[in-house]
Every structure is written in C-alpha cells, then in structure tokens.
Design goal:
about 15% strand, Arc Repressor Mutant, subunit A, 9-stranded mixed sheet
Length: about 300
C-alpha cells in the first residue's frame, strides 16, 4: 500500500475539486490510471435485476475493448458486474473503496479485487484503516464522481447510494448518462428521474464514448441495426428488396413474447440472439408505443391494448 498526501505530485488533481478533498489517498496498484482517459464511472443498485447485471457486464467489456478505464465502487450488484466484464476483457479498473485497501470490502469480492490488481488495475481509499461501525459509502461516492469524466447509471432505485454519486457529479458538472428502463420498473426509478431531469440516454459503451467526444472501437448495436444496405453501382441508386426479408429485431422480440407470454430482458436476449442493450432499447420503444407492458419484477409481456 502507498499513501499519497495532498501536496504530492502524484495526488489526483481532480480530487481538489471536492468541497473536502481527502488529505491523502491510500492506493494499491497502478496510480497512472488516474491520468488516463476516458475514465467512466459506472454505478447502480446492489439489488439490481438480472437484466441490469447483464448490461453492466456487457458495458464493462465494451468499455475495456475501447480502451476506457472503468471506475466503480466494487460493491455487490452493478459495481461488481461492470468490473467483472472489464476484467474479462483484460481492461483496467479503478475501485474506490470505503475501507482499507489491504482489506477491501465486501469480502465476498476479494477474488475480484485480486483479479483487478493482476490486470493492472487500482484500489483506492481515503482511509488508512477501515473505519469502525458502518462503512462510509456516501463519502466514498463523492470520490467516484470526482475521479471520473462522466457517471453512467445502469439501474438504481429512487432512494439509493447512487443518488449521492449523482449529486456530487452534478455539483462537479460531470456529464450524467442513464439507461432507459420501463416507466413502471421500480428498480430503475432513480435513473428515470435523471433522464427526466436532462441526463442523456445511453444503451452501451459506444453511446457513452460518443457523448464524451472519444472515438470508440465498439460498434453500436443500434447503429448496426439501423445501418442502410449498400447500393450496388449498377442499381442506378435503387435498393433491391429481397423477396423474403428477415424479421426486424423488434418483431423478433414480439414473437418471443407472444410465445412465452411473459419474459425477462435477459430471456429475450437469449431467445432472439440480440445483445442486452439492443433488447433494452427495443423494449423501451415498444412500451412507449403501447405494444408491451412491464411487470413489477422487470419482466415484459404483450400489452392487452396492442
């Protein structure tokens, strides 16, 4: 473990933007990651739905393939899944802990923390020893926002620890992005509030990096879905229509729902062969069009009005 004081050149300058910058930070791993970009903070609920965990894993993988640094808190739920996705692609992670970096919490994620360090990542904390009593997650969350160039909310309830990260990001003028979920999904009410308040909609790493102004090597599922067919030179500018076109992604989702009556986003992704971000975007569009409806569990079904 290394202890970096505020007057040291290695101290992260972005932390000086905080109202109360920590007098030091304790680190283990590659400190140079704090000077690399893009640094994308990904947060969300510890009790996230299966679909949200799958999206977080996918986002971590995509960000890593694009060369981004994934910043999160190492907690259960969204944090752990975005870190696992990044590690699976050999990507770099920064974990901001509410505990001593030598005894990171939660203990159930210590294998993950070791894997992050092995892949060249960084564990960081403002605490030299773990504070007594409850872990100071809210204080930790302000550091998450300060270290990052943006904050992405995958899924969060209205009253959750994520709201502290969001509030600090707003104060620091960090861009806020959120995934779109069904309006009736209580697991995602916090993120939907952000979208109503002006946060930008994202469905994958390519959206995040495009909004930040970075070129991304990730292909956007939505872009691939909407790409126009190439026009052969001899066609005179006309696009030939195939005699039997394959069903659109939205039709594939609807067909599965008609067969299964009720299905979760992850079930739909598996059954249609679409990515999790594609399915989520399609479901959002179908719900706004009144063709599907969401259940409190997060599962979807065909609307009785469709």
């Amino acid at each position: 473990m290394e202890k970096i004081f505020r007057n040291a050149p290695e101290y992260p300058q972005c932390l000086l933007e905080l109202r109360a910058p920590p007098p030091w930070v304790c680190v283990e791993g590659d400190v140079s990651l704090l000077g690399r970009g893009p640094r994308v903070c990904v947060v969300g609920s510890r009790a996230a739905s299966d679909g949200a965990r799958m999206l977080a894993d996918t986002l971590g993988r995509e960000l890593s393939r694009a060369g981004a640094v994934v910043v999160s808190g190492g907690a259960l739920g969204i944090d752990a899944h975005v870190h696992r996705g990044a590690v699976a692609e050999g990507g770099a992670c920064v974990v901001v802990l509410p505990s001593d970096v030598r005894r990171p919490v939660p203990a159930s994620n210590r294998d993950l923390f070791r894997a992050i360090l092995k892949r060249g990542g960084l564990l960081l904390s403002e605490y030299e020893t773990t504070p007594a009593g409850r872990f100071p997650y809210c204080a930790r969350n302000r550091i998450l926002a300060a270290l990052s160039e943006c904050v992405v909310v995958v899924q969060a309830r209205r009253k959750s620890g994520t709201s502290y990260t969001v509030a600090e990001a707003q104060r620091l003028r960090r861009p806020l992005y959120a995934y779109p979920w069904a309006v009736s999904d209580l697991h995602a009410a916090g993120g939907l509030d952000l979208l109503r308040g002006g946060a930008r909609v994202v469905t994958g790493a390519s959206d995040v990096l495009r909004l930040l102004g970075y070129a991304s090597s990730c292909a956007s599922g939505a872009a691939a879905r909407d790409a126009a067919p190439a026009v052969p030179p001899e066609s005179g500018g006309a696009v030939a229509v195939a005699p039997s076109s394959p069903p659109s992604p939205a039709m594939r989702v609807l067909e599965v729902l008609r067969r299964q009556a009720v299905a979760s986003p992850e079930t739909l992704a598996h059954a249609t062969g679409l990515s999790a971000s594609q399915v989520l975007g399609i479901l959002s569009e179908l719900e706004m069009a009144g063709q599907v409806r969401a259940h409190p569990s997060g599962a979807m079904s065909i609307s009785v009005l469709a």
